[in-house]
């Protein structure tokens, strides 16, 4: 919410309306300054050591915790993140899950290379 331009008072009101929970401006400020609710990381062509350095640098810059890390399936990625933020839940990004799963679906049943095509294919069975 903060990243989308809401003020701390707007966030306070939104949380109260949605969850009937009262939070002070200072609590919200501490949360958004020190805790990242979700972080998306894609290894692309970088090695695990690079990402370990990035995650370590986040910690060094004052990030207290990352709640969820959404990553691709690069071997060792989860371990690199959890070595710096041990409580972080690491999950594979949905796009990477779909891409990985498609190699097990025969081309007889599936012939598209897009997410939209896959979802259309999937809806035939739901």
How would you describe this protein?
The mean pLDDT is 80. It contains six helices and three strands. The chain has a three-stranded parallel β-sheet with strand order 1-2-3. α3 (48-60) runs parallel beside α4 (77-84). By secondary structure, the protein is of the alpha/beta class.
Secondary-structure topology with pairs:
Elements: H1 8-19, H2 25-34, E1 35-41, H3 48-60, E2 65-71, H4 77-84, E3 89-92, H5 94-102, H6 115-123
Parallel strand pairs: 1-2, 2-3
Helix pairs in contact: 3-4
Can you give me a brief rundown of this structure?
The protein has 126 residues and is α/β, with parallel strands linked by helices. It has helices at residues 8-19, 25-34, 48-60, 77-84, 94-102, 115-123, and strands at residues 35-41, 65-71, 89-92.
Rg (CA only): 19 Å
Residue fraction in strands: 5-15%
- Described by the principal axes of the CA atoms, the overall outline is flat
What separation lies between the terminal Cα atoms?
Answer: 33 Å
Query: How many H/I helices?
Result: 6
Q: Please list the strands of the largest sheet in the order they lie side by side.
A: 1-2-3
The helix-strand sequence is: HHEHEHEHH
Can you count the beta strands? 3
Q: Which structural class is indicated by helix and strand composition?
A: alpha/beta
Taking pLDDT < 50 over at least 5 consecutive residues as the criterion, the unreliable ranges are: none
Question: Helix content range of the residues, please?
Answer: 40-55%
Largest sheet: 3 strands, parallel
On the 0 to 100 scale, the average pLDDT is 80
């Amino acid at each position: 919410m903060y990243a989308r331009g809401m003020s701390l008072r707007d966030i306070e009101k939104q949380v109260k309306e949605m969850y009937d929970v009262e939070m002070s401006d200072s609590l919200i400020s501490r949360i958004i300054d020190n805790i990242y609710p979700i972080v998306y990381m894609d290894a692309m062509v970088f090695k695990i050591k690079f990402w370990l350095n990035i995650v370590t640098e986040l910690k060094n810059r004052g990030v207290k915790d990352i709640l969820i890390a959404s990553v691709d399936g690069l071997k060792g990625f989860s371990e690199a993140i959890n070595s710096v933020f041990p409580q972080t839940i690491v999950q594979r990004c949905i796009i990477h899950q779909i891409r990985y799963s498609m190699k097990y679906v025969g081309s007889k049943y599936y012939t598209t290379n897009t997410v939209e095509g896959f979802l259309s294919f999937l809806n035939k069975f739901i």
